[in-house]
């Protein structure tokens, strides 16, 4: 074999080795794609588990101690799914009819930094929560609660808000900005053709009380988002009594009623 042929053979072997190493490195570092969320009618616990795991951005190999069962919550059938990863606990409610996520919770197992110094401002905590929830920076949210709390040796922000048709609750470490827990709950909104507005809800309360608007001295109406849907909280005074009503915004049904002597 000539010297030139020997050099060519050595070069070829080195090139093949380099290509093999590159291919091996790529195969080891290529990320595993998160499976698409398999929404659709759910017939058993295993399907509910698959939806919950995919929604969490995980694979079955990353999950331990999974538990699921069919339950009924506030008159709604749901699959309850609970599982753990190395550093967090997840809880889901999956609707059997379409596989949509009704609610979910995320809690880290190691609670907080252990440092009570507040290095994260409330504005920064809100930015962290909004970004994680996918809320656009210019979008309006309804703030239900904002508190700076002391909990087990560290300080955290408790942020509670609604955006579009969902309610979010976040705990954010006030020292590091880490998200300690998340709670999400879908808010069912009644169709406009079937729902009642505030004026109609007030009329329903008056009819039930046997009064007219001319009898009323003062009134207050609030719209509340509860687990099962939207409610109207109505209070008014008339004839020496104070009346309180809770009316379902979807059906106009009176959910609760109180009448007390107006002191």
Automatic annotation (TrEMBL):
Pfam families, per database record: PepSY (PF03413)
Residue ranges constituting the PepSY domain according to the UniProt record: 45-103, 120-182, 198-256
InterPro entries (UniProt xref): PepSY (IPR025711)
Domain of life of the organism encoding this protein: Bacteria
Keyword list, A-Z: Signal
Leader sequence residues: 1-25
Protein name: PepSY domain-containing protein
């Amino acid at each position: 074999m000539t010297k030139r042929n020997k050099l060519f053979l050595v070069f070829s072997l080195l090139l093949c080795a380099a290509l093999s190493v590159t291919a091996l490195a790529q195969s080891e570092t290529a990320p595993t794609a998160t499976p698409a969320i398999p929404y659709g009618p759910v017939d058993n616990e295993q399907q509910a588990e698959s939806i919950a795991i995919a929604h969490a951005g995980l694979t079955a190999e990353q999950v331990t101690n999974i538990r699921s069962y069919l339950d009924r919550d506030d008159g709604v059938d749901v699959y309850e799914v609970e599982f753990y990863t190395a550093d967090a606990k997840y809880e889901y409610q999956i609707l059997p009819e379409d596989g949509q996520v009704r609610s979910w919770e995320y809690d880290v197992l190691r609670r907080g930094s252990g440092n009570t110094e507040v290095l994260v401002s409330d504005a920064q905590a809100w930015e962290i929560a909004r970004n994680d929830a996918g809320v656009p920076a210019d979008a309006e949210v309804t703030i239900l609660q904002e508190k700076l709390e002391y909990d087990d040796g560290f300080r955290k922000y408790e942020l509670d808000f609604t955006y579009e048709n969902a309610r979010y609750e976040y705990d954010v470490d006030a020292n590091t900005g880490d998200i300690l827990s998340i709670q999400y709950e879908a808010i069912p909104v009644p169709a406009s053709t079937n729902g009642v507005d505030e004026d109609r809800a007030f009329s329903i309360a008056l009819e039930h009380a046997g009064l007219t608007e001319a009898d009323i001295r003062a009134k207050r109406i609030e719209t509340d988002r509860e687990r099962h849907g939207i409610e109207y909280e109505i209070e008014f005074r008339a004839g020496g009594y104070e009346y309180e009503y809770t009316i379902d915004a979807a059906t106009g049904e009176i959910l609760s009623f109180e009448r007390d002597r107006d002191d």
